[in-house]
Amino acid sequence: MATTLKQTCSRIFLVCVIAVAIQVMFFSPLPDIPQPSSSLPFPSNSKIQEVIKLGQGFLKQPEAVAVDKTGVLYTATRDGWIKKLFRNGTWEDWWKIDDTDGLLGLTATATGGVIVCDADKVMFADDVIESSDGTLYFSIASTKFGLHDWSLDVVEAIPHGQLLKYRCLKYWLKGDLKGQIEIFIDNLPGGPDNINLPPDGSFWIALIEIFPSKMRFLYTSRASRYLIGAFPKLSQWVIAPHKKAMVVNVGSDGKIVRGFDDPTGKVMGSVTSALEFEGHLYLGTLYNDFIGKLPLPT
């Protein structure tokens, strides 16, 4: 009797394994996607390792930086605070947004206010900018998955937002091309997170390497991609941004002018935004407890 029960259980287990294998291997909805460039578009220079650390220990994962007309800097942290850095170097807890750990990008408006993205309130709102006519434009990293499930977007590899694109798009608001979209730059060596405009009309783009070589098996094995997608908690363990900080400066023609990096994440584990102000780059990050201030070479 015991032997028969054991055999029955073994057969049921085997059937379940086969069923799961068939599901994993033949019914995956995930298409193949191209890999990003494996080489840097600029010589690795470790310049980001030279940053001055601002607010170290006072800031919890400051994702982005904004500056107002008076030169006061703002950042939003994961503990729900918007914090200010005055010109004399002092910090202030300026505004508390209760019950959230999803504060990300922000911008200072022409009227002196501050608009911040709360990814918990607006589905994965990642960045915001104000146009010359006062219109606010928000970028949404994913319309399907939230901030705390971002790894599932990586697994699914379907463009629910711009998180998984190794390119930046240009949307024409005015002129003969109004309403049209074109590729501004592609084949970047990482996922573009935030874009900021310096005074010279170029663009600073922060890059996150979310597909290090150690996990590219997800995109060569259909079975492994579906298996991770079927068990969401595994995705958070397998998929983690590689500790490597990169920013690139791109001209209006879509060509890279220069770039800085921390190739091993020694000082900054990642950079999620880069704001140029008065000859310095202010670097936001979700890895560290400070904002990096990098003097720009002249």
Automatic annotation (TrEMBL):
Annotated transmembrane regions: 12-30
Q: Which domain of life is it from?
A: Eukaryota
EC number(s) from the headed UniProt entry: 4.3.3.2
Q: Which GO MF terms does the UniProt record name?
A: hydrolase activity; lyase activity
Q: Which SUPFAM superfamilies match?
A: Calcium-dependent phosphotriesterase
Q: Which GO terms describe its cellular component?
A: endomembrane system
Determine if Manganese is one of this entry's keywords.
no
Query: Which UniProt keywords are listed?
Result: Lyase, Membrane, Transmembrane, Transmembrane helix
Put simply, this protein is called Putative alkaloid synthase/Surface mucin Hemomucin
Q: Which organism is it from?
A: Handroanthus impetiginosus
